[in-house]
Write a structure and sequence with these properties.
- By secondary structure, the protein is an alpha+beta fold.
- It has 9 helices and 14 strands.
- Bound molecules: ligand DP6.
- Ligand DP6 binds next to α4.
Length: 333
């Protein structure tokens, strides 16, 4: 009744923002992401009749009650499916520094899904794992897979067709991402809260949902053709469309800080100098910069000149979530 799994985080190129059902966590739009090799979560779970409560340790620290409750609700689904009634102890470690302000719910819930289902003796397909991970966090459904991944919006009320599938594996197209850390503070408005406020108050929300299929269709084709310029352009477009939408909520949601904006302008300046480089940003101030291997060093050098940047992580594309032996766990507190 114990298992350990690891899952990489992912970055959406075509963004998920909005839910059609909050209880089942069904997205209002599909999304397309890339899974990142160097940023991952390793999670060990043990179910035991000895435990009176679920407990959670994040990077060696006892987690707050709100986080434990979220995990508990998730584990209830595993308990229901497996008929194992026991409480669990969960130990989860991110290999990226705590407080880097990087979203960890994607890798966190993907690793927990794989570890918890194994520990409870469930033998689930990747599709079933993705559906389960979605209940923890929408973006986690994508981290079950490596490389280029599409989250299908689905139509069914019960969410049985709302899961991710792999479009191409991590070796298909050698791209790099630079994760530019511009703040080490925890974000003010979480994605769930931000999405709900946007859906309730933005006058543009309907158009966002309506126009999403077009972006997904284009991106699938671009990935098939391996056209980097088009991939970058469309990723930036989807990112700015999502942030413009969030800003149009009431009160408007602004995830960027001054340095995020400086990085955006720097990327565009580099492009004017014929360096193919693009950005995308999730629900926070960190900027994810996308490039091909030949330009990686020059881009990193140029970005390092910006004063407000705290750190830059470089990563290629990585694989899907998997079970690992205990001996392989890396703890990096
Ligand atoms: C901006 O997956 O964190 O990163 O389903 O409510 O847990 P919940 O949301 P989450 O949202 C991610 C939003 C995003 C875009 C994306 O990853 O597609």
């Amino acid at each position: 009744m114990e298992a350990t799994a690891t899952a990489n985080t992912n970055i959406a190129l075509i963004k998920y923002w909005g839910k059609r059902n909050s209880d089942l966590n069904l997205p209002a739009v599909g999304s397309i992401s890339v899974t990142l090799k160097e940023l991952y979560t390793t999670t060990t779970i043990q179910f035991s009749p000895e435990f009176k409560f679920d407990s959670l340790f994040l990077n060696g620290q006892k987690a707050d009650q709100k986080k434990i409750d979220r995990i508990s609700r998730f584990l209830d689904m595993i308990r229901e499916k497996s008929k194992i009634p026991h409480r669990a102890e969960v130990k989860s470690n991110n290999n990226f520094p705590t407080g880097a302000g990087l979203a960890s719910s994607a890798s966190g819930f993907a690793a927990l899904t794989v570890a918890a289902s194994k520990a409870a003796g469930l033998d689930l397909s990747e599709k079933e794992l993705s559906i389960l991970a979605r209940r923890g966090s929408g973006s986690a459904a994508r981290s079950i897979f490596g490389g280029f991944v599409e989250m299908n919006v689905g139509e069914k009320q019960d969410g049985s067709d709302s899961y991710a599938t792999q479009l191409a594996d991590e070796n298909y197209w050698p791209l790099y991402l630079l994760i530019v850390i511009t703040s080490e503070q925890e974000k003010q408005i979480g994605s769930t809260q931000g999405m709900n406020l946007t859906a309730e108050t933005s006058p543009y929300y309907h158009n966002w949902v309506q126009s999403s299929e077009k972006d997904l269709t284009k991106m699938r084709k671009i990935i098939q053709e391996r056209n980097f310029e088009k991939l970058g352009q469309l990723s930036e477009y989807s990112c700015l469309k999502m942030h413009g939408l969030a800003m149009s909520a009431n009160p408007g949601i602004i995830y960027w800080n001054g340095t995020s904006v400086e990085v955006i302008h720097k990327i565009r300046e580099l492009r004017q100098n014929n360096i193919l480089v693009y950005f995308t940003i999730d629900a926070g101030p960190q900027v994810k910069v996308i490039c091909e291997p030949n330009n990686l060093n020059i881009i990193k050098e140029e970005l390092e000149k910006i004063n407000g940047i705290k750190n830059i992580f470089v990563t290629s594309l990585g694989s899907g979530a998997k079970l690992i032996g205990r001996e392989k766990i890396e703890y990096s507190n």
